[in-house]
Amino acid sequence: MALSVKQIQAAKPKDKIYRITDSNGLCLEIKPNGSKLWRFRYRFNGKGKMIGLGSFPATSLKDARNKREDQRKILESGIDPSDHKKGQKAAVSGENEFESISREWHSKFKPTWTEGHAKTIIRRLELNCFPWIGKTPVNQLDPPEILKVLRRIENRGAIETAHRVRSIIGQILRYAVATGRATRDSSADLKGAIPPAQEKHLAAITEPKEIGPLLRNIEEYEGGDITKYGLMLAPLVFVRPGELRHAQWDEIDLEIAEWRIPAGKMKARRPHIVPLSRQALEILNELKPLTGNGNYVFPSVRSKSRPMSENTINGALRRLGYSKEELTGHGFRSMASTNLNENGWKPDVIERQLAHVEGNSVRAAYNHADYLPERRKMMQWWADYLEALKNGNKIPNIKGD
């Protein structure tokens, strides 16, 4: 039931704070000292929240209701009124400089990213943006000023980085809009201002006649044992290099032949299952006496509490004589994708095993166990295929198709 002015005036203080409700989230809080404060109560992302709208009688019942409606409009637009209010205060106090808001945005979203991605984002901002626009208030950051930043990157030949930085700036400005410190994303006006980046393919060996010698070279690798096992496992599981080096023993079940990678380690932030072939299990069983008493399957040579360095696999490939233009650790994914497709495996099964994200947001919300029986069969065939190429044997058939 809606409040009346008489009810508000008649409300007396008590020993403890209490509230009388109006409607649509508006209520009046009466404190023991007699002060009366307007509050707007709402829910955002499933959590109950509350913000102040002024005191009575300085803010009348009519004014409080108008303020409530303003907050409801903000809420309906998908913005937390509390964040919006904080943003307005920051804008008034001068805390809306681009660098300050960028670091706030980065801190807020960092838990949703992989560690490597978070480092890359902040490094790009620190190198390319903060020295020139870090002190600029976000509500004064116009397209020409942003374009100057992007042109500096473009002029050094880093076209792809320029596009990525524009995207990052856009995300930050949209966050500033959502929190009430900017009115629009001015970077949106710069679409097409930077020439398209030439598509770069990560170096990979995909020809079967070259795969066999590569696998034989890996078997003859004379560096550290842990690195050698990493090189041997990489083509069999064809996960991303970061996922391989961060593998932990508690994620691997040797009995059921599965490696379950948690969402936090995956690029798409979804859990992923890697069925383990007979050959992959042999490698892991040989490796377990070396590293099984620690967390990481491939620990750093300096500390078992840390994973293998991100440069270890690529460094080992260089020692084997493969240049960065010929092969990288990421190239094992292209090797698998190309050959599996050419040998008639279903594209959807391959894409699921590669943990690629669907462009369609509805289809993207797949279960990480999709096509698992087919993926088990495919992973064993792939391991047999690689073994045949290495040993010069007959290529296995795809049975059951």
UniProtKB/TrEMBL annotation:
<keyword id="KW-0238">DNA-binding</keyword>
<dbReference type="InterPro" id="IPR053876">
    <property type="entry name" value="Phage_int_M"/>
</dbReference>
<dbReference type="InterPro" id="IPR013762">
    <property type="entry name" value="Integrase-like_cat_sf"/>
</dbReference>
<keyword id="KW-0233">DNA recombination</keyword>
<dbReference type="Pfam" id="PF00589">
    <property type="entry name" value="Phage_integrase"/>
</dbReference>
<dbReference type="InterPro" id="IPR010998">
    <property type="entry name" value="Integrase_recombinase_N"/>
</dbReference>
<dbReference type="GO" id="GO:0015074">
    <property type="term" value="P:DNA integration"/>
</dbReference>
<feature type="region of interest" description="Disordered">
    <location>
        <begin position="78"/>
        <end position="98"/>
    </location>
</feature>
<dbReference type="InterPro" id="IPR011010">
    <property type="entry name" value="DNA_brk_join_enz"/>
</dbReference>
<dbReference type="InterPro" id="IPR002104">
    <property type="entry name" value="Integrase_catalytic"/>
</dbReference>
<dbReference type="InterPro" id="IPR044068">
    <property type="entry name" value="CB"/>
</dbReference>
<dbReference type="InterPro" id="IPR038488">
    <property type="entry name" value="Integrase_DNA-bd_sf"/>
</dbReference>
<comment type="similarity">
    <text>Belongs to the 'phage' integrase family.</text>
</comment>
<dbReference type="GO" id="GO:0003677">
    <property type="term" value="F:DNA binding"/>
</dbReference>
<dbReference type="InterPro" id="IPR025166">
    <property type="entry name" value="Integrase_DNA_bind_dom"/>
</dbReference>
<feature type="domain" description="Core-binding (CB)">
    <location>
        <begin position="96"/>
        <end position="177"/>
    </location>
</feature>
<feature type="domain" description="Tyr recombinase">
    <location>
        <begin position="200"/>
        <end position="379"/>
    </location>
</feature>
<dbReference type="GO" id="GO:0006310">
    <property type="term" value="P:DNA recombination"/>
</dbReference>
<keyword id="KW-0229">DNA integration</keyword>
<dbReference type="InterPro" id="IPR050808">
    <property type="entry name" value="Phage_Integrase"/>
</dbReference>
<dbReference type="Pfam" id="PF13356">
    <property type="entry name" value="Arm-DNA-bind_3"/>
</dbReference>
<protein>
    <submittedName>
        <fullName>Integrase</fullName>
    </submittedName>
</protein>
<dbReference type="Pfam" id="PF22022">
    <property type="entry name" value="Phage_int_M"/>
</dbReference>
